[in-house]
Write a structure and sequence with these properties.
Blueprint: H1 3-36, H2 45-53, E1 57-60, H3 64-68, E2 76-78, H4 84-90, E3 100-104, H5 108-119, E4 125-130
Parallel strand pairs: 1-2, 1-3, 3-4
Length: 138
Amino acid sequence: MPKGDSWDKVMQAYYKETARRMSTDEARKQSIAEVFGSLGDRMTCDEIQEIFRSGGFIIDVRNPVDYLSGGRVHNSVNVPSINVIQWCNTHDKIDLNTPILVYSNTGNSAKQARQMLVDNEYTNVTNIGTHKWYNLCS
């Protein structure tokens, strides 16, 4: 085999490995950005559970499939964001001043749910971001 062919094969293998590594690195960066770039106000597990014990509600506004797939905060209830107003309006233990914590995959849906609740005169609503921040609270 001529020298050039061997060198070409080595370089092709190098390029393939570099492309694979770059793809893996990009996926890792995206995952990190998803978790640490999420929207919301981060709280401790103790703060969240204290609000729950004092009569507050922890609402996971993800769709039911995502909620059941894991990564939920202890004592949370799943109410998809499109149903959150109706659910809060009809729940007998929730009034306009009840502490409500909302979270989602990245905090975006929770941000929207929070705004819907505020627009409907709920005064004590906090977007606590993503369930990924609270994996030790499960």
